[in-house]
TrEMBL record:
Entry GO MF terms: guanyl-nucleotide exchange factor activity; small GTPase binding
Descriptive protein name: DENN/MADD domain containing 5B
Record family assignment: Belongs to the RAB6IP1 family.
The keyword Repeat appears for this protein: yes
Compositionally biased residues, Low complexity: 129-157
Domain RUN: 717-877, 1063-1214
Any one GO cellular component localisation term in the record: membrane
Subcellular location, record wording: Membrane
Keyword Signal: yes
Species, as recorded: Cyprinus carpio
A Pfam match: dDENN
Region spans: Disordered: 117-157
Length: 1219
């Protein structure tokens, strides 16, 4: 079961850290290098011994010394070594202090103390400059917890060492190594061995007997079975879960929950699932291990795929510089201030301060699905075991510890007698209990027993059993000690907590198999094409999930642990199923038998775990009734004793490193470190290539859908997930090899250094910052001044946004802004162009100082310019943004200027600006308002005052001064009384203007422009009698109506957050109003000789007048009731529009009526009324579509399809209308 047993001791005290970093401390506070004194057996092929790694992890801080004044309580901790193939080895360490008997070591300690006193009086502490150096120094600033007094006066003689006065002690450790985490068993065994070592009475057998027994004679329990073996003084129990149960996990989850509380642990668990960087921080090594192992245990059926070092030795602090997800544990010292702990990367870091029960979470952090109900269920499980869900101090009460110690002494003699009496492979206690149960359950035997009592006859054996059972019931169950009952209680709590977590995954991924893509004929071809293949239909999977789950799941299915899980599923068709996958699939299959449901009926209703009682019973059954008892320890053959002789044992330990060359955790040679960093650089570049490719392909696929090809395979949620992932990647790239940082964001720190240098140069030259500044030209942007392109300017925009409070948030905002402006690659290239600054901030091996990789990285980012993102505008929805608006009249006409007072109102997907008054004869204005999102409409009007009140406007241009997005709102019509349709205000529909710079490389495609307001040219072609050849045919009109209705239906089938503006689909070019206008203009007698043009609205007014007049004289008395109601509603709507105070003109009124009719589902009811009214014969030609009953009935059917959807209108369309 176990690999080796080893004591550790340092023979020569050597400073563990460099002198400059550690010599300012008293020698008793310093750490010294340890070494392996001995280990046994020599080697095992399947589990080779890594001497350096075991040495470091047994004593991560190194060797330490104490005197009689210091606390020397033995400590237990465990550790884990992950090998290159992913296999894990567990170590369990019992550390204690032993008196130093060597005069040379005592003399050396005396000399070191005298040197320290002299140096302390002569020199001052030097501050290191780099992040990693400052991290190491911050961990050494505070004194060891072993000396509580006078922490600040480490040079005083009272704290020093005097070889005559003081007794010197040195740390020593015993360690058991095993491939499986039998923590309780190993802890109990090591504790008993140490008691035997320090006891004044020798143990029953030599220590070698117990060590040989546990290494060679104690078997591994079979799956689903329990085993009892014997330590030095007491028996020890261990058990293994069955094949269909959750895998073995012996670390106490109760301790992890009590240390952190349920809510904190769920948050950390979510960070681990999303593969962020997690750093555990505690004074206690075992706490680090318990929390790390506890969290990774809860990941079932998934497995952590990245760097996993629960206890990070002091010599490996450079691991924290790794630009990859990691889960590491760092030992703190009592009183260490968190603010002084400078870490290389903090932008995506979850910092867990275990001792203070607090965590620091990354920003933009999605919550775990059903988090509140999930925490409630976990709390109920904890409360059922008498534990607080909020957590608290788990240190045992001193009185309880003393009582337990007394109990152990009392049990010692009982246990020794049990060693003699118990058969080697028997379970006598269990057999006797079975006999008692049989007798007590038999009514005939019970009557005989009662008769025997009345006659005075005693059944001695039965009475003894009953009495013993009663005594056990009063003291502990089944003849078990309180410690064994506590172990059973912890095991039951462990498995129930794990079942709750496993049930959540079984619910969320119950139908995951339906979305696995398996299209390879064999394993070899699948492995060959693995990176180019999509193995999981993510878009379909997300569309099948409840809405509240999406923020978490969209991130989680992009992780490496989920990809590995799917890979294992695919490979299971050719190979044996991976154990975790087999158990998980079994759970899902079992749940389906009890609860059959269709995949489409997904619900976010929380479902509690149903396996709690069953799993706890399995554990209890195994631990209450032991299945096997191992062979007892015994005296060894002399050959074995000689084989384990101490001298040869130590010589083998010294020679092992020469003969065995395995991958070593502690190999710190420059070549190895360089190779590791080069792998990081290659990995970052590969990840950048994959992320940008994914973003580009998915986005271009969506644009193809907008052009009418294929189906959408990316949602706004997925897009946001990919961009957040890109932000995380950039932070990790900027953190790699960093040596000077301010704040938590490495990228923003670099930007601030760059900004400071540029602003200093600007002040010296007394000229605007010119480096990298360009003027971006805009198509059709007549009248708008060019927008200056500048990294510094964009930084200032971000710094002025008070809504963003942190450096990490500012860095991500700048990335999103640059991506939206298609300047990400250009801005970062400009930032890195200052090579002197980069050399100052980064070490030589850093990614940003690898020229070839840096150029490829910038090229990959440049490819993102091929698509349009609105990732800044759509995320920062509450910020204040400056806008610039320019009104462009048709200047070739004489009355380009007006004497009236113009105004405008800009509307977008997120709101409107309100009415903005424009200074008379000034055609440009700037205004600040809350982010409007993508702009949709502009209301433009004037008050008709003065002599020149008529105004012919070509278009309105509006630009977002932060993002540079420019929108054009075509008009091409008059505003004024007595001209055109008499409108004093118009609602204009916007179109996005694509920027054109001199260097337009990388633009392969572009997003199709938004629909725009109908132009004057189109209206003239319809309303004028001239130009008949340009009139649309009846087929074209019917097709345009069908297309407009289809676009509205598609709009409502999109996710709500991705629908965009419905106003554009109603009023824009190609919209419903535009299509119906063509229908009503077909065959319309719009022009008269020597008279003004007639508009469709005039026809509506005549219909209303006719209906109202006919109603007064009684002509409509015989009209069917539905038609009568339609007449009433039509008249009410038309009169309400006519009486409103707005002067929107006749075409504007037509547009408003169509929009209101679509909203209130009235259009299909009004059309028959208009077609059957006698007014139609005077205003429409014989061949008009409106006079064709078949066409009208067909149009009614098409419009009725809109009744299934809730059409809402912008306030810019409906304000002032009272219905």
């Amino acid at each position: 079961m176990l690999h080796c047993f080893q004591p550790l001791l340092s023979l020569i005290p050597i400073p563990f850290l460099s002198a400059g970093e550690n010599f300012d401390q008293s020698p008793l506070k310093r750490t010294f290098k340890s070494k392996v004194l001995a280990h046994y057996p020599k080697n095992i092929e399947c589990n080779p011994f890594d001497q350096d790694a075991v040495n470091m992890l047994c004593m991560p801080k190194g060797l330490s010394f104490r005197t009689q004044r210091d606390s020397r309580t033995p400590q237990f901790h465990s550790f884990l070594i992950t090998r290159e193939d992913g296999s894990r080895t567990y170590g369990f360490v019992h550390t204690f202090y032993e008196e130093v008997t060597s005069p040379q070591i005592c003399s050396a300690m005396q000399t070191l103390h005298q040197m320290h006193q002299a140096e302390h009086n002569a020199s001052a502490h030097n501050c290191p400059s780099s992040s990693m150096d400052s991290l190491a120094s911050s961990l050494d600033e505070v004194e060891s917890p072993s000396s509580q007094g006078g922490r600040r006066s480490c040079g005083c003689s009272g704290e020093g060492y005097d070889s005559v006065r003081d007794t010197l002690y040195v740390s020593k450790a015993m360690c058991l190594i095993t491939p499986m985490p039998f923590m309780h068993s190993c802890k109990g065994f090591l504790s008993q061995v140490h008691r035997a070592v320090i006891s004044h009475q020798p143990p029953p057998l030599p220590l070698e007997s117990y060590i040989y027994n546990i290494l060679y004679e104690v078997p591994l329990p079979p799956p689903g079975r329990s085993l009892k073996f014997h330590g030095v003084y007491e028996p020890i129990l261990c058990q293994r879960p069955g094949v269909g149960e959750l895998p073995l996990a012996d670390f106490p989850l109760s301790e992890a929950f009590q240390l952190l509380g349920v809510e904190n642990l769920v948050q950390i668990f979510t960070c681990v699932l999303l593969e962020m960087q997690i750093l555990l921080y505690s004074q206690d090594y075992q706490r680090l291990m318990v929390v790390a192992e506890g969290i990774t245990t809860l990941l079932f059926p998934f497995q952590w795929q990245h760097v996993y070092v629960p206890i990070l030795p002091a010599s490996l602090l450079h691991f924290l510089d790794a630009p990859v997800p990691y889960l590491m544990g760092l030992q703190s010292k009592e009183g260490t201030d968190r603010s002084k702990l400078e870490l290389p990367q903090e932008a995506n870091l979850c910092f867990v301060d275990i001792d203070n029960h607090c965590i620091e979470l990354p920003e933009e952090f999605p919550q775990f699905p059903n988090k509140t109900e999930f925490i409630q269920e976990l709390s109920e499980v904890l409360l059922s075991f008498g534990l607080s869900p909020e957590g608290g101090n788990t240190s045992p009460d001193p009185a309880v510890s003393m009582q337990t110690s007394t109990l152990e002494k009392e049990l010692k003699s009982t246990s020794l007698s049990e060693l003699v009496d118990d058969r080697r492979n028997g379970n006598l206690g269990g057999e006797a209990l079975d006999v008692l149960e049989l007798l007590q359950g038999n009514p005939t035997l019970e009557r005989l027993q009662a008769l025997a009592k009345r006659t005075g006859v005693k059944v001695a054996r039965l009475e003894a059993l009953v009495a013993g059972q009663k005594a056990v019931g009063e003291e502990s169950v089944g003849g078990r000690s309180p410690a064994e009952e506590e172990e059973l209680r912890n095991a039951k709590l462990n498995v129930q907590l794990r079942e709750v977590f496993a049930a959540r995954f079984a619910t969320m991924f119950a139908d995951y198999e339906s979305f696995v893509i398996q299209n390879s004929p064999d394993l070899e071809s699948w492995l060959t094409n693995r990176e180019q293949m999509h193995n999981f239909d993510k878009a379909s999977f997300l569309s099948d999930q409840p809405e509240p789950y999406l923020p978490f799941l969209s991130h989680f299915i992009e992780t490496q642990m989920f990809a590995t899980f799917i890979d294992n599923k695919i490979m299971s068709q050719w190979e044996e199923k991976e154990p975790l996958l087999r158990v998980f699939d079994g759970r899902i299959e079992k749940a389906r038998l009890y609860n059959v449901r269709a995949p489409s009926l997904r619900s976010s209703v929380y479902q509690k775990c149903t396996f709690l009682k069953e799993s706890a019973q399995a554990i209890e059954q195994r631990l209450r009734k032991i299945d096997h008892t191992a062979i007892h320890p015994h005296l060894l053959d002399m050959k074995i004793v000689r084989f384990m002789a101490h001298d040869k044992y130590m010589q083998e330990a010294r020679n092992l490193g020469k003969n065995l060359r395995q991958p070593k955790l502690s190999d710190l040679s420059p070549a190895v470190i360089a190779q590791t960093n080069w792998k990081f650089v290659e990995g970052l570049l590969k990840e950048c290539k994959m992320k940008t490719k994914r973003m580009l392909v998915e986005k271009m696929g969506r644009e193809a859908v907008e052009l009418g090809h294929g189906e959408a395979n990316i949602t706004g949620l997925e897009e946001n997930t990919l961009i957040a992932s890109l932000c995380d990647l950039l932070e990790r790239i900027w953190s790699h090899g960093l040596q000077v940082k301010q704040g938590k964001s490495a990228l923003w720190s670099h930007l601030l250094h760059y900004q400071a240098r540029e602003e200093k140069n600007e002040q010296l030259s007394e000229s605007p910052v010119s480096n990298g500044q360009e003027k971006r030209k805009l198509e059709s942007s007549v009248g708008l001044p060019a927008l200056r392109v500048s990294l510094i300017q964009d930084m200032r925009h971000i710094q002025n946004m008070g809504e963003i409070k942190t450096d990490v948030g500012r860095a991500r905002a700048l990335i999103r802004l640059s991506l939206e402006k298609k300047l990400l690659s250009q801005h970062l290239k400009q930032l890195l162009s200052n090579q002197a600054l980069t050399k100052k901030l980064y070490k030589r091996y850093a990614f940003l100082r690898c020229e070839e990789e840096k150029e490829q990285f910038l090229f990959h980012l440049l490819s993102l310019n091929a698509v349009d993102y609105f990732c800044f505008t759509s995320v920062f929805t509450t910020i204040m943004i400056p806008y610039r608006a320019v009104i462009i009249p048709i200047k070739k006409l004489s009355n380009a200027m007006t004497t009236s007072n113009p105004w405008l109102c800009v509307s977008g997907e997120l709101g409107d600006s309100g009415i903005l008054q424009i200074t008379k004869n000034v055609l440009e204005m700037t205004f600040d308002c809350q982010n409007l999102g993508k702009l949709t409409t502009v209301q433009l009007g004037h008050d008709n005052s003065g002599l020149l009140a008529k105004w012919l406007v070509d278009c309105v241009m509006v630009r977002n001064e932060i993002t540079g997005h420019t929108y054009k709102f075509p008009c091409g019509r008059w505003l004024g009384k007595g001209v055109d349709d008499g409108s004093l205000e118009r609602v204009l529909i916007g179109e996005f203007v694509v920027p054109c710079s001199d260097d337009d490389g990388g633009r392969g495609t572009k997003t199709p422009p938004l629909q725009r307001s109908p132009s004057q040219i189109r209206r003239i072609s319809i309303t004028s009698l001239t130009g008949r050849g340009n009139k649309p045919t009846t087929v074209q009109i019917q097709e345009s109506i069908g297309e407009a209705v289809n676009n509205i239906i598609k709009h409502f089938h999109k996710p709500e957050k991705e629908r965009g503006s419905l106003t554009v689909l109603l009023c824009g070019e190609g919209g419903l109003v535009w299509a119906l206008e063509q229908f009503f203009h077909h065959g319309f007698r719009s022009a008269r000789i020597f008279q003004k043009n007639v508009f469709v609205w005039d026809f509506y007014e005549k219909v209303v007048a006719f209906v109202e007049n006919a109603d007064q004289i009684g002509d409509l008395q015989e009209t069917p009731e539905p038609l009568d109601l339609n007449c009433e509603s039509f008249c009410r709507y038309v009169n309400a529009i006519n009486t409103m105070p707005r002067n929107i003109g006749k075409d504007g009124k037509f547009q408003l009526l169509v929009c209101l009719g679509a909203r209130d589902r009235m259009l299909p009811q009004w059309l028959p009324l208009l077609a059957e009214c006698s007014v139609i014969t005077r205003m429409y030609e014989e061949n008009a579509l409106l006079r064709d009953k078949l066409t009208v009935s067909s149009l009614v059917a098409v419009l009725e399809t809109l009744h299934d959807f809730p059409i809402t209108l912008e306030s810019s369309l409906t304000k002032s209308v009272e219905l």
